[in-house]
Amino acid sequence: MTPITMVEGRRIALSNLDKVIYPETGFTKGEVLHYYATVAGALLPHVQDRPVSFLRYPDGPDGQLFFTKNPPPGTPAWVMTTPVPRSEEPAARQVVVADLPTLMWAANLVVEFHVPQWTAGDPAVADRLVLDLDPGPPATVVECCRVAMWLRERLAADGLEAYAKTSGSKGLHLSARLEPVASSDVSAYAKELAQEAEAALPDLVVHRMTKALRPGKVFVDHSQNAAAKTTAAPYTLRARSRPTVSAPVTWTEVKACRTPAGLTFLADEAAARLGRDGDLWAPLTDPERAGRLP
């Protein structure tokens, strides 16, 4: 019988709690749920006003993975959704993870959380810039950190304060809070930054996605600023061999990184860091900290 849990007055069926989701470490679905409950206070402000896309991996990262934007079958009536019109689906809606019950319901599906750079209501207006630094082997997150330091200074020259987090996979994400501005303008600016980074660091950076260009270099992916694109949310677990987290990090950690292990955080480590340091990305949720796109 599936146990029913009450979360802030909502009845949620939490199933298969002993099921191992990450075989390499024995991390179970119950531990996935416990992790999300632990980090909810930090995670929710980063997703609650944004339509969420889910990468589901109910049988673990070695099982079937499927990306969904539409509310999954069986979504409770109390889960908030928002219109997200798409050319192929003019009446499309997506889930908004607005509270702890919704977070726990979604976590029970075993998901990564992905969000756009705009808030619910207007895909044409963004309030964040994101740059996804993706290393092409044999480059690693170490090389990403070198690029991140350059980009941090370049953004600062335009009055924008950048924050870093691990992707939870191989690379690094940089983000800056913006005064609301057209998503198309953010996309154009991000592309210019990527091109400038390649010109300044030609042996280290590539701004085009072409795989033949990427071995040993860091691809500065600017495309995730497009209204239709999404990025892994802060504190989301990833569908990797171990329960890695897309974890905010300090610039001191970025500058000091010498090995990939130095910026790899599992669920327990990420939760402990949050308890010790608080949410390092909290300024990104504060409109008072927004910068103006040049």
From TrEMBL:
* GO molecular function annotation: DNA ligase (ATP) activity
Q: Return the InterPro entries for the record.
A: LigD_pol_dom, MtLigD_Pol-like, NHEJ_LigD
Q: Where is the DNA ligase D polymerase domain?
A: 28-281
Name the residues that span the membrane: none
Enzyme Commission number: 6.5.1.1
Q: Which Pfam families does the record cross-reference, listed alphabetically?
A: LigD_Prim-Pol
**Which keywords appear in this protein's UniProt record, sorted alphabetically?**
Ligase
The question of whether Plastid is a record keyword is answered with no
Domain of life according to the entry: Bacteria
Keyword Ligase in record? yes
Q: What is this protein called?
A: Non-homologous end-joining DNA ligase
Organism, scientific name: Streptomyces antimicrobicus
Q: Which gene encodes it?
A: ligD
